[in-house]
Amino acid sequence: MRKIRMLYLLLFIIFSTFIFSGCWDLREINELGLVTAVGIDKGNSPNRYSVTVQIANPTSQKSSDNKGSQQGNEVWIGTEEGASLFDAVRKLVNISSRRIMWAHNNVIIIGESMAKEGIIPIVDYFTHNPELRLKTAIVIAKGEAKNYITAKVGMESPSGVSFIFLEGYRALTAESVESHMLEVSTELENEYGNPLISEVSLKEATMQSGSEDSKKKSSETIELSGAALFKKDKMLGWLSPEEARGVSWMLNETDDTVVTVTDPEYGNKNVAVETMNVRAKIKSEVINGIPHFSVHISGKGKIVEEDGTTSQSMSEVKEYAEKLVDKKIEDEIKNSMEVVQKKYGVDVLGFAAIVHAQNKREWDNGLKYKWQEIFPQITVIVSADINIQSSVLHQQPMKIF
């Protein structure tokens, strides 16, 4: 009896290998167009979309000549128009000969004109796409997005892949903001949310080969700096890199950056301080129907560069540098608030959510119905406290004898 059961089990295993072998939805890689970057612009006629994709070419072959240059096509770039984004994407198969796959896409670049018209159709399409990762970066381009798909990003290639590194190092300068599809879609679905999306622009760069003649080649590269400010899904304007950093302090996106200050005590020389573990605490209080906010920035720092010499002790230098750094951070935040409140009058900082959480009764009793009118009038008091703990330079500064 035991032998019969073993025989049945063996037959079942053999039979199963024929039934369950393979994948029912298998798609060969040479049949897919793996998108690494996409640019979206307005079409040539009203209510039409232009979609430009950068597709990795896994079959490309590189060969090096005797001068060290590489040949071969690493990416394929194509553009199509359609009455909808889905229509334009489907039409890409007419010229790409492959089905478009979004699982490896790294960045969605939206053209300036498209952003001013409204980004709801774009966010709706990509959040409905099951292949897209919601942590995909989304940026707004100065000019047309398609020009950025062909541009180089940093020192890597293809540009869609290297954008991961560019966006990953964003916090080192904090001159742009963190913007992914998840954050943008969440802001748009929030009744009082207004997105703040990173800005990209084209900048000239020079490439020099390692060959004997050392030929230089100029090209355009993508710079991630500044931000686009939105009222709901329509772009209103730009924040400069300095204004974007002022906002970043309040959004807790400046954990590790550099603040350079000028010290009038010794010849207006510069002192560079690297900040670490920076956190913003925002509190609100409603007085006579108007919210008042206090923003406190705290963190640590270390002196990484001093352009001049001084006879002061290290403790005196640190104490003086702390005051200069604190004031600069406070000024950056105040300048950004002036632009956001007075020029655009749009709450991109989530202050509405803070009032709602900390002053719920006042919010429910009327503030939520007139927040758009009240926001430009709110008072914001800013304070910073950066504790400079050590220096990567000499513990005792150079002295003049």
Task: Describe this structure as you would to a colleague.
With 401 residues, the protein is of the alpha/beta class. The protein is 31% helix and 33% strand. Strands 1, 2, 5, 6, 7, 8, 9, 10 and 11 form a 9-stranded mixed β-sheet that branches. The chain has a 4-stranded mixed β-sheet with strand order 12-13-14-15, with helices on both faces. A hairpin with a 6-residue loop joins strand 1 and strand 2. Helix 5 packs across helix 8 and helix 9 (241-250) packs across helix 10. The protein is globular, with a radius of gyration of 27 Å. The protein starts with a helix and ends in a 10-residue tail after the last strand.
In short:
The protein is of the alpha/beta class and 401 residues long.
What structural keywords apply?
2 domains; alpha/beta; GMP Synthetase, Chain A, domain 3; globular; 401 residues; 4-stranded mixed beta sheet; 13 helices
**pLDDT average, as an integer?**
83
The radius of gyration over CA amounts to 27 Å
Query: What's the β-strand tally?
Result: 15
What's the domain count?
A: 2
Main sheet summary? 9 strands, mixed
Helix content: 25-40%
- How big a fraction of the residues is strand? 25-35%
* Helix segment tally: 13
Low-pLDDT residue intervals, each spanning 5 or more residues: 61-72
Structural class: alpha/beta
